[in-house]
Amino acid sequence: MSSLVKVAAVHAAPVFLDRSATTAKAISILREAANAGAELVAFPETYIPAFPVWAALWAPIDNHDLFTLMAEQSVSLHGPEIAALRREARTLGVIVSMGISESSSASVGAIWNSNILIGSNGDILNHHRKLVPTFYEKLVWAPGDGAGLRVSSTSIGRIGNLICGENTNPLARYTLMAQAEQIHISSWPPMWPTRRPSSGGNFNNVAANRIRASAHSFEAKAYGIVTAGYMDASMRDFLVARDPSVVEVIDRTQRAASFFVDPTGEAVGDLLQDQEGIAYAEFDLTRCIEPKQFHDVVGYYNRFDVFDLTVNRKRLKPATFLDIADTPAASETDESNTLDDALSRSSNGGRLDA
């Protein structure tokens, strides 16, 4: 394993609420990044099919149709979108971190904010569901569980991921640190409206994400990939056409940025904010070792006799069917549970052969 790794953060818009077209766009981006030499390509939060920014703009009683569309366009772990991404990852020989809105085979209306890590041979290395939807996201997504709180061992290093506000959760972050994480991916939406401009506007979201990324990398002594969504003209036009009164909120809310930090928390590589594209950086993973001399918070620089953390990585299920072995064929739910059980049993960070 070479210590030098070229990585890519995708700063791109989806084809808004169209999972098939967005998957096709993602594959095109993967090919471009692979041609540029990237070995790991990280996409933003719920890139497929979109981030539900409307939950910040209108009351839920006005969003029933958008929730329905979001649920219909969400992605199954065993659906054609993930299958296409797995094939492309294997063909290109790249590792892919993809944010999806994940559908449930147990309910037509339950969806999760999820991340799928796909290996360079097309294996699903990890399947993480966001532990707690943040603020207005609670109107869209169900809470996840701890099954995906794992670091995956790959040919380019040990990779972990947390989604958006999870990067503010010290225990979730420590859970990944305690698995020898070397590359930490944090994925974000294209914008995060929290106030109307007339009432003081938003906090500095770019600065906040930089603080969170740098803090984690400094504490973990790991490299950080910050990959954020992008709002293109078609997404903006869709929202404004629905209700022109939101134009000020949309246009005066700061756009997110995609960038990278090193194990000391310093910026490295490209930064993208106001234009769509792919940001690149080169990581030298040997630089994750020396800072451990200063503070190894999962090694000597801790008091395990004072502090004790237990993490439940069991995949939560709505029901357990004891007669399932008697059925002619396993349902998608059972296939998903089999996958998650295999990930839990895996001894190499969550790798599962296709």
TrEMBL record:
Residues covered by region (Disordered): 330-354
Segments of skewed composition (Polar residues): 344-354
Domain of life: Bacteria
Matches recorded under PROSITE patterns: CN_HYDROLASE
InterPro entries tied to this protein: C-N_Hydrolase, C-N_Hydrolase_sf, Nitrilases_CHs
Coiled coil (residue ranges): none
Domain called CN hydrolase: residue spans: 5-285
Annotated signal peptide: none
Family: Belongs to the carbon-nitrogen hydrolase superfamily. Nitrilase family.
Name of the protein in question: CN hydrolase domain-containing protein
Protein species of origin: Afipia felis ATCC 53690
